Amino acid sequence: MSDRGVCLVNDQLVELGNGDRGVALAWLRERRGLVGTKEGCGEGECGACTVLLGEPTASGRLAYRAVASCLLPVGELPGRHLVTVEGLNPPTGLTPVQQALVDAGAPQCGFCFPGIVMALTGFLLTSDDLSSHAATVALDGNVCRCTGYTAIRRAVDALCEHGARRLAAPGDRATQLIQWGVLPDWFATAPARLRGRDLAPRTVGGDRVVMAGGTDLIIQQPELLDDDGVAFLSRRPALATIERELDHLSLGGGVTIETLKHDPDVRDLVPDAPAIIDRFASTLIRNRATVAGNLVNASPIGDLTVLLLALDASLVLVEGGARRVLPLGEFYLGYKQLQRRPGEVIESVRIPTGVKGDAVSFEKISQRRFLDIASVNSALRARLDGPVITSATLAIGGVAPIPLVARNAAQALVGRVLDADVVREAAVALDREIAPIDDVRGTALYKRELARRVLIAHLLRLVPDRLRHEELV
Amino acid sequence: MNHGDPHLHVRGESVFVDDIPAPAGTLHAAVLGSPAAHGTITGLDVSRALAQPGVVRVLTAADIPGENQIGAILPDEPLLADGTVHHAGQPVAVVLADSAAAARRARREIELAIAPLPVIVDAREAAARGQLLLPARTFAIGDVDTAWSRCDVVVAGRVDSGAQEHFYLETQGAMAVPTEDGTVLVHSSTQSPTGVQKQIARVLGVPMHGVQVDVRRLGGAFGGKEDQATPWAAICAVGARVTGRPVRLILDRRDDLVMTGKRHPYSSDYKLGLTRDGRFLAYEVTLYQNAGSAADLSPAVLERSLFHATASYAIENVRATGVSCRTNLPPFTAFRGFGGPQAMVVMEAAVQAAAQRLGRPAWELQRLNLLQDGSAFPYGMRAENCHAARCWDEAVALHDLDAMAADVDAHNRTHQATKQGLAVMPVCFGISFTNTSMNQAGALVHVYTDGSVGVSTGAVEMGQGVNEKIRRITALSLGVGLERVRLETTNTSRVANTSPTAASTGADMNGMAARLAALQIQSRLRHVAAARLGSPDSDAITIADGVVHLAGGPTRLTWEALVEAAYLARVDLAAHAFYATPRLHFDKAKEKGRPFAYHVYGTAIVRVTLDCLRGTSSIDTVRIVHDAGRSLDEVIDRGQVDGALAQGLGWMLLEDVRWDVDGLLLHDTAGKYKVPDLGFTPADVHVRFLANADNPEAVLGSKAVGEPPLMYGIGALFALRRAILAANPDLDPALVTTPLTPERTLALLMDAPRAATVNPEETPA
User: Fold this and answer.
1) Any A CB within 8 A of B1 CB
2) For B549-564, what is the mean pLDDT?
3) What's the pTM?
4) What are the strands of the beta sheet with B547-550, ordered from one edge?
């Protein structure tokens, strides 16, 4: 075995050598001759480069997810299975996914279709919910410029109808999909071929950079992947777990956003979590992006960050043997400036279980509803006693150099019978504690107005029978 | 072994330029674009870049062997900047290296100094300063000046429509391979193989026969690769010439966004006069086109705007003036609709303003003034076989517009937090290149001795299905099954002097040329068959489904046997044919003529819901009746309608591309520029093709389909404005700005004075 490890690319074991660096997309196309995977944007925004990444699980299987190969470091591949469209292609004919797209007359220029095939295959491989709606969500990271999606929707409907029948019985999904022809026969052997091939986790510390999902870092600093100075958080499986503790839910720093979306304990605390998280990035990005990565990226408009701030989350930061707990609201000091010591890694994020039963409202105003960065986003957690809010945390993004906890606005809401006057007072308080700027996401005045309106939207959702849209707007 | 493109696409096996295996020794290029929008180059030092690992050569203007010029209409566009830069992103130098990554790294080491010059980003400002590409043009009919006094109502206003990025999924790219004797083979992702060939011959200083351009397919183009594929192919060709090695250049997305032109932003003033009962009597419009820094196709785009100034309406007194303004933005270029949408949105804004003034639904005025057979266009042509009213009436009846309107009104009476809006959008779009000489096409059909058929034409496949249509036409014309026919690459050495695949004419013209070539071969084969079957009359012979028929009945003579017999009898099994669209003429001195072979008609009904709190909106339903003639392939045509509609909706409500006052692109990454996705596009789109609509002017009764449906998207703009009006009765109909993004929507929802403060800048550059 080479010291850089071995991975499985489709049905071939590949030894990784010194020249195998950078992102998987360029590597596949230039070094492996697998040009079915296309580059549309290079920043995870289009899905033309979608591949499946399979990772060994504790049960000895491989857990697959659809990811954007333009944001997948080759350094993540050892011990894992990378599947491209070439790997799915039957010797003749088409897989049922491919056939559904052709039957619907969907492909036009064809450039985005390998990615769509991969995303839909990943959906069939992983989703418990086989509805057309769920399949559409699975395609939220795949852009097609030719079709207007109408024929793609028809294909999805047909595929899901078949899928509901073919995959109704309980059983191993990969086995079912092999029987259906969605996956090739050799898929069954992949877990065994990778057994014992995983790289030992590297210690995190001496490296220049710890990379989590890398979904923003790789865009900002692609040269990081040119050498060996990166340690991947995904090599520390202990960080990828969600644990229910006595007074909090502990989300490992390496937990992906998509995992959060489906986690029953998360849903127990925040019943709307799946719908809220659907507004974050896209499935392809959520399958890579992590809790710690989102927080440490320190975007003033981070969707998950804003949600976790409203949930009064804290961080567990570790460096070597040292461990400390810090309220998330104290983590952000200024634009992209963190209260973080050298070498410190976010081990986990704690959501107090006390928020269970509280109302949680999330708002995101963006030019495009999905896979877009918000002009303003916001989350409100509130505990209600009849018409009175007894405690509340309001977080808002896009209106300050940091994701902001709007303490004064929240304070204005607490302990009072909610009516239009209270809402107006809170809006005034909010207006005084934000400082938006003009940028490509909107003018400062626009964001100021949005801040007022997302506050109203939260409260209309909280107490729909006490407030009326027209008296507030 | 002859699968259609869709089969290859879903297997990832269709070959795009960047998928062609690079020959040994291939160099990769990275282009340094100007960081400034306007300035004088005072220093250009490439020595540090040249010293980087893997770098073989750095090209500048001085390295161009021939003329440093690629302007197709006006000679105002150097391949590499020389002395002055006129827009940010303008190519200045090119690094050639062993890998694309090395070339991009080394690009950063080029030292470029630019002394800034004043930057103009706004079309009206350019016009005020006399920065016009060409003198203004005016199309007129009747006497608009005397007509105003007869009008009972006159409305006037201004429309600013924004740019639109093509966002073809496959970025611009090419690969040039040096061939013997100073010639070059160029694989280019272009809609215009001959255009690329011609400009490469110019920059290399060689005859056109020394440049072979080959195109398999494009990963989307939408007009963006009509003229603007050329620089990248030409850069590769120069690099190949200078180094003697193959050169590949694939723009990354950011370079593509920054360096290439987009749909032209327009700023327009209109005035519409009506009688009390709603008849349009007079219309005057001035269109200021932001052309960018070089002509590119702007004069032709402006011309098409003028041809579509009156949209789908018959108006007796019209004066439409177009002004093409030179600014310091990348040269704006062809984009599906080619200036038509920019003019039609102005006309529709005028209609909406008039309806608001008269207190009547806009659709009453629209229907009343719809074109009919014999209606005169301002450019002198009269509407023939006009299906405007048929499409309209069928859509309105099929989808019960009155019921829909009542439903929307009921919603708006009972809801405060959301409002709905409804608009009807008729489309009339002229088919043919407005430059009459370009309406020509050639095809070369080969029947091989085993009976299989290869077809070459000037058409470029870019997802619009033109190859499949030509395949069908050829198979039908020869009388063989589809599986026997394969479309070859588009290659300038097989079919010469081609027009770009553009103006929706690809299938019309190249399909007809292929049909004529196939019929020549078929005629020769019928003579062979007649001799073999002992028939004195070859007219009694037909070929259908690969079997020779005599007097209408099948014989035992198969296609394979017939082809074999013809070969042995030394009959030519190849044919070239040529098609020139008949009856076209246009006199630019008088601005009158018959520029179009025919018009495409259609009507869309668009319904939207507005979230009055958030300023966001959703497109609920789109109902379309579309005139595709006798469709060559309803699946393909439906795909074109769906795709064009989505782009039109995106142009009107979503896709925002602007530059700052210094001429630097604000929306310069895929993360910032948002095109329609599954969440934006309506799930409920209903399309019916008009029945019994055979078109006598095109191949097999069909009609072109690529561009016209884009303009259905304009309906969404006015549906959303109707919804806003339902929430804010003070909405000013005289000011229309697109795209109507959530930010602008919110501004319009709020009181006028406040709206002004929320949204201060907002003339798209």
Assistant:
1) no
2) 97
3) 0.97
4) B541-544, B547-550, B553-558
